[in-house]
Task: inverse folding
């Protein structure tokens, strides 16, 4: 196979194991069938904004040029900090976009990556949000009518857990052995009364199984911008990382907007 074109982050389907594909140019490359095989990825020295298609030297917030980054609704502050969302007050860069994305049912979840994590996501981004972060387990915690309220719950819960994902541990499958149901029970008492009505009951723990055929004991990040080409055996995919047998991993999401050629014999 040989595919050439601009890439964006991998798309996942929940299955056992998770199925990954990579949008490249106009096509979609099914990745799971290349696990266990040598693949070659070349960076063609071209980066384009995924919104306006202008040629750029570097990307902002995974795939955007600077002018798009400071004006698009997809890169507004509330994407990373939902409690800063002002769409419920009628204020947003693009109110039509906010209508669909910020003023619709929004979930607060707990997930277990390398450690316990709390996060916020739109109803239609479950479970892809969990898979993108490489969660091993996840559970829905609360559902609110808008992004702002979910952000308030996230803010309260985050006071009680340390929520920095260590990506190396996540890829290596090293995580704290804790029970998400029990954590969910404990943490709900930390919410102020007016937010308690959004809590979800009877939720089940979702387990996410990644296609990884070989365990590694250490990993190194591969910089394809610097080295231009990687030509190694793919042994797994987790989160948004391709994992190779010589301990290198490629963070695909970081290269959104880059033009790659991907081939395999
Ligand atoms: Zn742009």
Result:
């Amino acid at each position: 196979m040989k595919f050439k074109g601009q890439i964006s982050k991998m798309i996942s389907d929940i299955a056992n194991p998770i199925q990954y594909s990579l949008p490249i140019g106009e096509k979609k490359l099914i990745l799971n069938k290349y696990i266990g095989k040598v693949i070659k990825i070349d960076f063609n020295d071209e980066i384009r904004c995924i919104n306006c298609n202008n040629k750029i030297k570097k990307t902002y917030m995974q795939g955007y040029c600077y002018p798009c980054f400071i004006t698009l609704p997809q890169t507004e502050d509330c994407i990373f900090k939902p409690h800063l969302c002002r769409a419920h007050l009628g204020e947003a860069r693009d109110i039509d976009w906010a209508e669909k994305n910020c003023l619709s049912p929004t979930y607060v979840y707990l997930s277990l990556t390398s450690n316990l994590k709390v996060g916020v996501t739109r109803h239609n981004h479950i479970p892809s949000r969990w898979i993108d972060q490489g969660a091993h387990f996840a559970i829905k915690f609360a559902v609110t009518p808008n992004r702002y309220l979910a952000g308030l719950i996230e803010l309260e819960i985050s006071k009680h857990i340390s929520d920095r994902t260590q990506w190396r541990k996540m890829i290596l499958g090293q995580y704290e052995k804790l029970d998400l149901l029990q954590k969910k029970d404990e943490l709900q008492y930390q919410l102020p009364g007016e937010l308690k009505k959004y809590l979800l009951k009877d939720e089940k723990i979702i387990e996410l199984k990644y296609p990884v055929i070989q365990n590694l004991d250490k990993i190194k990040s591969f910089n394809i911008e610097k080295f231009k080409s990687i030509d190694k055996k793919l042994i797994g995919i987790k989160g948004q990382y391709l994992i190779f047998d010589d301990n290198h991993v490629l963070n695909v999401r970081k290269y959104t907007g880059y033009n790659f050629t991907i081939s395999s014999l």
